[in-house]
Amino acid sequence: MSRINTNVTSILAQRVLNQQQMSLQSTMEKLSTGLQINSAADNPAGLIASQSLQSEETSINAAIGNAQRADQVSNIAEGGLQEISSMLLNLQNLVSQSANTSGLSADEKNANQLQVDSILQSIDRIASTTSFQGAKLLNGTFDFNVTSQSSLVSDFQINAAKLAYNTPRAVQVVVTASAQHGSMFLSLGGTGLDLASAGARFQFELGGAAGSQAFTFASGTSLASIASAVNTFRGVTGVSGVASGNYLHFDSTTFGSSQFVSFKLDNAGGQTGGLHLASGTNENALKATGGTTAFASMTNPIRATGQDVGAIINGIAATSDGTTANINTDFLDLSLNLTNSGAQTLQTINAFSITGGGAQFNLGPQVDMLNKVSIGIGNVATRNLGSNSLGYLSSLASGQSNNMVSGDMSTAQDIVNAAISQVSNLRGRIGAFQSNVIQPTINSLGVNLENTTAANSAITDTDFASATSDLTRSQILVQAATQVLSIANSQPQSVLKLLGG
């Protein structure tokens, strides 16, 4: 080269040196930070993917925290219910003791009542004070809010309901099959017994879901008297009787496929007549054909079974027990009890509208209906434990109808049993919510977080084996470029030889 104003070789060497220094700087930055992507220029596509994965990681971590918080809330609620369960068992013991009226003195009965009052007060106190960060858990705060309840719905229990923001959920029931008692008709050809002789006896055994009882009647006994005798034992048999014209109508005391009436004729006593089954669609009417058995040909017991209500709730076929229909889906889990007229008429019932409430948790990385779960926790105060038909636990207090001193102990026991069942069912639902919803969600989110973090790491984290190799290479290349630049800068000096220098 014989030019000195422009040293092209030096310019080339400088450019290469700058490139190698930038490569060395980038490699050292990756090694010092541990990240492959320190700015958008390092990997634009990788940066976008990494930011998306980091967003998912943040959401998953939040969801895990939500699930753990839901588990803590459930633990506190279940702890309060456990104490109430223990007290209800003590209450059951006191009721049973108090029913032994002839074996207890007045002072003992009063002492039992004092204990009952103390238990009832403690249950109310636990119901009103069990809380999580100030939110009451057992006083109805987390029960569902309902409006426009139909008069054909006597009672209901909402276990869970997913509601869109500020959007009520209407509950509609389509009754597709009427609820029926076990039902049959006894016919004597008149309004009373007309046996072969004064010494003859009309004997039969009547049974139901509760038990059975044998009956014996003499000639001249009216249908109304037979019905009265049957009703005396309705608590034993679960069967009641009503005289109507020339028929005696036997009914199971409650509805459902588990209920029945069984009639076994032991001795007709010369009485003519027969037994008639009820119509399949109307329990108050005789079966049109094939449902009559004359006394003379009655050799085996005859049994009539009840029927559960058939229902569709919000498009879901319900499971039924008597007049109670249940559905259990991800969006709606409830049980409702229809009145007799509601359960025995094929119709569409706008049961009620759920407007909000319940304990709501978001257990997924996305805030949407799929990741939302809910559980209803009702008020377990004594005024709410029991039922409309039986009465409530508060009726066992001093001066109330089912107190230990002068109250009805049979009803009191039924109420306590109902309360124990309610609290046990609520504890079971909370336990199932923890074991079948919360814990699997935490486990699944943990795996999801692990995989998402690994994917983000593959994009953003520095591979130190590769980076240290790049560092060595860059250091050597920088040294080489520096040496070349030094040589390039010295080359113009050779022109001096042309000048004879």
Condensed summary:
The protein has helices spanning 8-33, 44-98, 106-129, 223-232, 234-237, 340-343, 409-460, 464-490; strands at 131-132, 135-136, 144-147, 153-161, 169-177, 183-187, 201-208, 212-218, 239-244, 247-252, 260-267, 274-277, 292-294, 302-305, 310-313, 316-317, 319-321, 324-328, 332-338, 348-357, 359-362, 372-375, 386-387, 391-392.
What best-fitting shape do the alpha-carbon axes yield? elongated
The rounded Rg comes to: 41 Å
Sketch the major β-sheet: 5 strands, antiparallel
- Spans of at least 5 consecutive residues whose pLDDT stays below 50 are none
Strand order across the biggest sheet?
3-20-5-15-16
Describe what this molecule looks like in 3D:
The chain is an alpha+beta fold and 501 residues long. Among the domains are: 8-34 and 462-499; 183-305, no CATH class. Helix content is 40%, strand content 24%. It has 8 helices and 24 strands. It has helices spanning 8-33, 44-98, 106-129, 223-232, 234-237, 340-343, 409-460, 464-490; strands at residues 131-132, 135-136, 144-147, 153-161, 169-177, 183-187, 201-208, 212-218, 239-244, 247-252, 260-267, 274-277, 292-294, 302-305, 310-313, 316-317, 319-321, 324-328, 332-338, 348-357, 359-362, 372-375, 386-387, 391-392. Strands 3-20-5-15-16 form a 5-stranded antiparallel sheet, with no helix packed on it. It has a 5-stranded antiparallel sheet with strand order 9-10-6-12-13. Strands 4-19-18-17 form a 4-stranded antiparallel sheet. Strand 9 (239-244) and strand 10 (247-252) form a beta hairpin. The longest helix is centred in the first third of the chain and has 55 residues, at 44-98. The chain starts with 7 loop residues before the first helix and ends in an 11-residue tail after the last helix.
